[in-house]
## 1
Amino acid sequence: QKTDATGLRFFDMAPPVEDMKSAVLDGLTATPKGLSPSLLYDQEGSRIFEAICDQPEYYPTRTEIGILRAAAPEIAAAAGPDVQVVEFGAGALEKVGLLIDALARPAGIAALDISGDHLLAAARDLAHAYPGLDVVAIAADYHKDFDIPAPVAGPPRRRLGFFPGSTIGNFAPDAAVDFLTNARRLLGRDGLMVLGVDLRKDPRILEAAYDDAAGVTAAFNLNLLTRLNRDLGADFEPGRFRHKALYNQDLHRVEMHLESLADQRVQVAGQTIAFAAGETIHTENSHKHTIETAQALAADAGFTPQRVWTDDQDRFSVHLLAA
Ligand code: AVJ
């Protein structure tokens, strides 16, 4: 644990590089090839993701912010005072700020993220925007077991989890239930959870959102190869792959792939990986839900759905769940 001048405390529980190497080699020697979407979020990937959120085709961010702005007073009333906010995946300050601003006497915030560098930057922004607020940053893999440190002043009256952006959509339904089960345990007794979930809609809208005209999502996906070159000494030529986004109707998810443009061989951590022209690396899933399937995941994890809000076009949903 490290503490800086603002009182921000940083806990590093991120998995070591050796885990990354074996996970990447497992994914690239499997058939079909696939990698964990968490690999997309190195420092540069996190930066590009924020640019995705500003693209006109990428409706989730601004839609969710609109919903949160309207719902924040009711969420704050349900939560009451002396609440520690627990943000799963440190995102832009704007969303969590809507909750903190609405809360009466927040006890602190704990920000969790897989990417340590991005997390520290986000946590520092929080500490500066809310002087006096107890800020804890925890670099950790969501799937692993760990505990959230209480604010320095003492245990909060309750914890309010916050998992916005439909990041839950990265998980297949079974894994989403596992994640939510772990989140419910971390939140503890009397915990509440605010969960953002993107809704099913016309595949053309979805495919455009994941393949914007400016090419920002393509750059986000291709940055993974640059990252593997840097962190694992791989020799991918990103120009010999292309970004592909498609809606899988049967599994209700947008899939991102990196498609090889030629037959080629790539060196990754001392191993040769062969690609056929047209073969892909599956890099991310974004599952889309209905209100009912989202509430069913929450219920399977032991949460009780309390309230749900949507926008006027039913594009996105925000759920309040009791742990
Ligand atoms: C951060 C996982 C919610 O799935 O919409 C955006 C990631 N990938 N565009 C999403 C993403 C491509 C995003 N999540």
## 2
Amino acid sequence: MTIAHNLGFPRIGERRELKKATEAYWKGDADYASLAATGAELRRSNWEKQKKAGIELIPSNDFSFYDQMLDQSCLVGNVPERFAWNGNNATIDVAFDMARGTREAIACEMTKWFDTNYHYLVPEFTRQTAFKLAGRKIFDEFEEAKAQGIITKPVMVGPATYLSLGKVTDDSGLDKFALADQLIPVYVEIAEKLAAAGAKWLQLDEPIFALDLNDAQREVIKKAYDALAGVKGIKIMVAHYFGELRDNIELFTSLPVAGLHIDAVRGVKEVETVATRLGGETVLSVGVVDGRNIWKTNLERAIGPLNMVRSKLGSDRLMVGPSCSLLHVPVTLRSETKLDDEFLNWLAFAEEKLDEIVFLAQAVDGNVDQAVLSTNQRAMVDRANSARIHDESVKKRVAAVTEDDYKRHSAYTERAQKQRGKLNLPAFPITTIGSFPQTAEVRKARADHKRGDLSDAGYNAFVEQQIVDAVKMQEKMGFDMLVHGEFERNDMVEYFGELLAGYAFTKFGWVQSYGSRYVKPPIIFGDVSRPEPMTVRWSKYAQSLTDKPMKGMLTGPVTMVEWAFVRDDQPRSETVKQVALAIRDEVVDLEAAGLAAIQIDEAAFREGLPLRQADWKAYLEWATASFRLTAGGVADETQVHTHMCYSEFNDIIEAIADMDADCISIETSRSQMELLDAFVKFNYPNEIGPGVYDIHSPRVPATQEMVDLLRKATQVLPPERIWVNPDCGLKTRGWAEVEQALIHMVDAARELRAAK
Ligand code: GLN
Ligand code: ZN
């Protein structure tokens, strides 16, 4: 019999119960017992839901109060020395210290989990690192489920992925992969204990199979699974997801383990090869239900690969599952009372995906629930043909885009001259990245307006007053290029998404980003267009208040798509192109409204890079093209800026230059301008604003610090192409510190001008 299988379930709760409980505990408003009770209730209800849906192999230890990678560090006793851990049991308080930092110890670094918007805590390794079994969570949760009548399949991050994603933090020259010899025995010990407790399966997540692997990683994988496969009384399943296996297919299929899981959404092309290669008794879990997106599965289409695997391996060696853990999708559609039935009928969140898995597992064994299948087929047809998705004018416009649309009229040098003539800026022009502090007052006005307690007129007047104040302040301080402050925006993607056709928003569609931070990504369901100008009224108003140039402020097409759930019925690049055209309209309208400079933020440009290097070129080509399409509609005199929040540009600098923005602002203050290296080496041809003020901290940098940073920049870049600005927008900061820091920043720019 084919088994209905799950890899992981969202831990946050239908109503973000986990967030409320952890934050209350951190604040001291709730004790440990109440936190633990919330955790236990979430697990109980998640297991219950899965059991009721008919999932036969249910995961445990997929729950976490913060992050599964952090849990793994605790489980194997890898707590950095600075947290002064007693060395015995790494409890939840130890985990929270690592995640959040203490007065004595800075928090562990956090970074993105593969190409998701989920962040994990980076394991740290030093010469002193010694692993040992130090956590009970995985065992406790197994027992907990057992008491509920469910023999779960415990899940943990596999040893190769664990070592690969960690970093060496001392300067010992340690080879982190050499730690495998110490780490693997701890994994073996865990497997043995779970076997003794009665677990039948143990899932080890190794998504690094979706990456380009080096020899050291391959060695660790071989060693680890040779050792783990030897543990008696428990079956090991290695789970691969987030992409194709490609050159790793041989290694993967030759692992001597009892089960393998593959991502049959992104890796659908490889299912047959994997099944053909599988020898002996190995079970294959085929992840046909998309764990990364919110669309209903096309059940009829999903049965195809399942039937093929069944015919090769037999149903006793087949499991059906989601492509990856369901952690990356919202919990349930049941709460979405705001969405209409037609739209709801296209979606499946985690709970609904469980039903799809169960249907498919039964269907492949011949028990096709015809009613479910035909309802699903109708939903597929309805969505494919819906007038809400297809906008002929958008399709025509995309098809009519010409080479010229991707270009400014003249090359940068010529544009720069014209812009200089028009803008008449001093050396080291001073500007900011766009947003000013989103005070409680600003957020309240927006909430009141949304609720209907503040009229449109009242809200508009409020925002205008904020703009007046911001303009006055910038003039008084001596800024050369002003911004309106973005007071009207809740979020740089949501604001535009709400005004564009083709976007939808859920009410409870939260997904964990990190710890107690959840995001509610918009859904791009149809052809995107801009019914009306989105920012013009605010920018135009701001410009009317001053003789200084005002910078219009927009979010770029890659970021608009990257931070959303995206339609799966056309290539991502096509969706990005539609968004680019919509934003291009706004750029043109801003120019017509008298804005001499327009900034198009691409915060997620680097984030969109594919996991495999071989795929970078194609991505960078359409991503840079989409930027040029967005910016290509304006005259040479109009100055186009872009902004990117980070940092590492080494491997994408050519593409950045290819975007051909007149000016790019980047984050450089924390790295002491080191991050400029890529620009210097490449001879980046256009203007740059290297951030001189670290906006991630409330600390006010002294004038001299910023002078030093700017001097460093002038040593490596032509001074006439340098701008002065902070690292990023100021919306998360308070006014008091911002005012001080900006005064210092202006003083620093003046000092450089004087020295020239
Ligand atoms: N213009 C945006 C702001 O200032 C840019 C933010 C970002 O790129 N993260 O807030
Ligand atoms: Zn930024």
